[in-house]
TrEMBL record:
Residues 150-215 form the HTH luxR-type domain. The keyword Cytoplasm does not apply. Transmembrane segments: none annotated. GO terms for molecular function: DNA binding. The lineage of its organism: Bacteria, Bacillati, Actinomycetota, Actinomycetes, Streptosporangiales. GO terms for biological process: phosphorelay signal transduction system; regulation of DNA-templated transcription. InterPro entries: CheY-like_superfamily, NreC/VraR/RcsB-like_REC, Sig_transdc_resp-reg_C-effctor, Sig_transdc_resp-reg_receiver, Tscrpt_reg_LuxR_C, WalR-like. Gene3D superfamilies: 3.40.50.2300. The modification 4-aspartylphosphate is found at residue 55. SUPFAM superfamilies: C-terminal effector domain of the bipartite response regulators, CheY-like. This is Response regulator transcription factor.
């Protein structure tokens, strides 16, 4: 199945360059472009892509606000958002993940990295590198205590699901969690899928944000 992509970036060279690289892939098609977040929202509404490559900094409406509006609520069929940055923007990591972004990609990524990133988020996984996870944890440390109003939804998780969520929040991959719990990796994936469903979360970044916001995990644990 072809992955449909919309590129939202105010730099024409980025849009055209990424478009050429992605259209060269047999399973990816760039179906539209936009020069800012406002136009991006309009294009996404019409074209209904699977993945949106969203620049962080743009005029009129930046990528953070566009992502918040695009992914507000839990509407079915919302595309995955992959944030584009020219360098690691610490100030934006937390807010972008909180808004529902599925990950980050540097604009100097190779053709292979770009295509792989699109495939990863289209499949429902998160593109969250260890360095981004560390920044996220550092941001929670700076902010202090839990920000969520309650822990009520945590009670819906089984003991094993709570274990899995804790390890996810500490930045472990599914394979590492499987080793730690002495279970199959597919079992971890099954548990994590149930966690997302029970907590009404979209993906791994949102699960990490949630775990820290409710205080299930704290920086330094």
């Amino acid at each position: 199945m072809t992955i449909r992509v919309v590129i939202v970036d105010d730099q024409g060279m980025v849009r055209s360059g990424f478009g050429v690289l992605l259209n060269a892939q047999p399973d990816i098609e760039v179906v539209g472009e936009a020069v800012d977040g406002e136009e991006g929202l309009r294009r996404v509404a019409v074209l209904r892509p699977d993945v949106v490559l969203m620049d962080v900094r743009m005029p009129v409406m930046d990528g953070l606000e566009a992502t918040r509006r695009l992914l507000a609520g839990t509407a079915d069929g919302a595309p995955k958002v992959l944030m584009l940055t020219t360098f690691d923007l610490d100030d934006y990591v937390y807010e972008a993940l909180r808004a529902g972004a599925s990950g980050f990609l540097l604009k100097d990524a190779s053709a292979t990295e770009l295509a792989d990133a699109v495939r990863i988020v289209a499949a429902g996984d998160a593109l969250l590198s260890p360095s981004i996870t560390r920044r996220l944890i550092a941001e929670f440390s700076r902010l202090g205590g839990p920000r969520a109003p309650s822990r009520k939804r945590l009670a819906e998780l089984t003991e094993r699901e709570t274990e899995v969520l804790t390890l996810v929040a500490r930045g472990l991959s599914n394979g590492e969690i499987a080793q730690a719990l002495v279970v199959a990796e597919q079992t971890v994936k099954t548990h994590f899928g149930r966690i997302l469903m029970k907590l009404d979360l979209r993906d791994r970044p949102q699960a990490i944000v949630y775990a820290y916001e409710v205080g299930l995990v704290r920086p330094g644990d």
